[in-house]
Amino acid sequence: MLRVRPVHFTSRTASWEQLLTAVGMVRTEDDGGWQVFDSASGRLALHDAEEGSDRDGRTVFAVEVGDVAEFARRTNAAAQDEATAPAELVTADQGEACRISGPDGFSFLADEATHGAQCAGADPALAVAAVWYTADPEAAVRTILHIGARPRPVPDADETADFTAKNGGILLVRPASGPSRAGLGFEYSGPLEPLRERLAAAGITAGITEEAFGSTLHVANPDAAGPNAPATVWISERRPMG
């Protein structure tokens, strides 16, 4: 199995809980400073961070798998053309995990999923998107393919690449200068206006912009006051290709 489950570190957990609940996610785990919210496609983990720390407001790219050892074996078998094996077993904060390393120096963890099915009470239109920003998108694409994600069509022929995970969520590769980094966003397969109204009812500011290939809802980021986060969290409208 493969499911998108980035980890977001924040000192503003209550504000994030409010935002995630308003967009239709459901909390399925709560272990002190660690909470997990399910969407209909993918999950997001919230982790407490000290206010003003280097972690506060940052997102870590991550996925969930069924068996970390088997996942590592399959990833390395798929990457036989690479100079080094991209996957290794490690011990992380949450237990045994697999670390996947890309040629650009970017790495991320695959943790063993603690529960399988997505929450039936989540908004069926919402999906979690984890973003890999890199100066070497071609290498990042190879790594995402090695872990078993499925390519999906993109509306233009630039260096962007989109993937879906078999068990939920979206992985995006986006070209960027400087060191590789992670990003967080969402997709919505229905009209954005009702979602904006739902957020407004919860006291959360959001605005819609029309872009080349669809609309995007920009939601006030609870971490915007800190130095590590953008001003808004984006939710893009997913339009069928063709």
Helix and strand layout, with pairings?
Blueprint: E1 2-4, E2 7-10, H1 13-22, E3 26-31, E4 34-38, E5 43-48, E6 59-60, E7 62-65, H2 68-78, E8 87-92, E9 95-101, E10 107-112, E11 126-134, H3 137-146, E12 150-152, E13 161-164, E14 170-175, E15 181-188, H4 193-201, E16 206-211, E17 214-220, E18 232-237
Parallel strand pairs: 2-5, 7-10, 11-14, 15-18
Antiparallel strand pairs: 1-7, 2-6, 3-4, 4-5, 8-9, 9-10, 11-15, 12-13, 13-14, 16-17, 17-18
* Radius of gyration using CA atoms only: 17 Å
**Range of helix content:** 10-25%
Task: Give the strand content.
Answer: 35-45%
CATH topology: 2,3-Dihydroxybiphenyl 1,2-Dioxygenase, domain 1
The span between the termini is 29 Å
Q: Which descriptor suits the 3D outline?
A: globular
CATH architecture: Roll
Largest sheet: 8 strands, mixed
- Provide the succession of SSEs: EEHEEEEEHEEEEHEEEEHEEE
Number of helices: 4
Quaternary structure state of the chains depicted: single chain
Low-confidence parts lasting 5 or more residues at pLDDT below 50?
none
Report on the structure:
With 242 residues, this protein is of the alpha+beta class. It has a single domain, classed as 2,3-Dihydroxybiphenyl 1,2-Dioxygenase, domain 1. The chain is built from four helices and 18 strands. It has helices spanning 13-22, 68-78, 137-146, 193-201, and strands at residues 2-4, 7-10, 26-31, 34-38, 43-48, 59-60, 62-65, 87-92, 95-101, 107-112, 126-134, 150-152, 161-164, 170-175, 181-188, 206-211, 214-220, 232-237. The strands form three sheets. The protein has an eight-stranded mixed β-sheet, covered by helices on one side. The protein has a five-stranded mixed β-sheet with strand order 1-7-10-9-8, covered by helices on one side. Strands 3-4-5-2-6 form a five-stranded mixed β-sheet, covered by helices on one side. A hairpin with a 2-residue loop joins β3 (26-31) and β4 (34-38). The longest helix has 11 residues, at 68-78. It is globular. The model has no long low-confidence stretch (mean pLDDT 92).
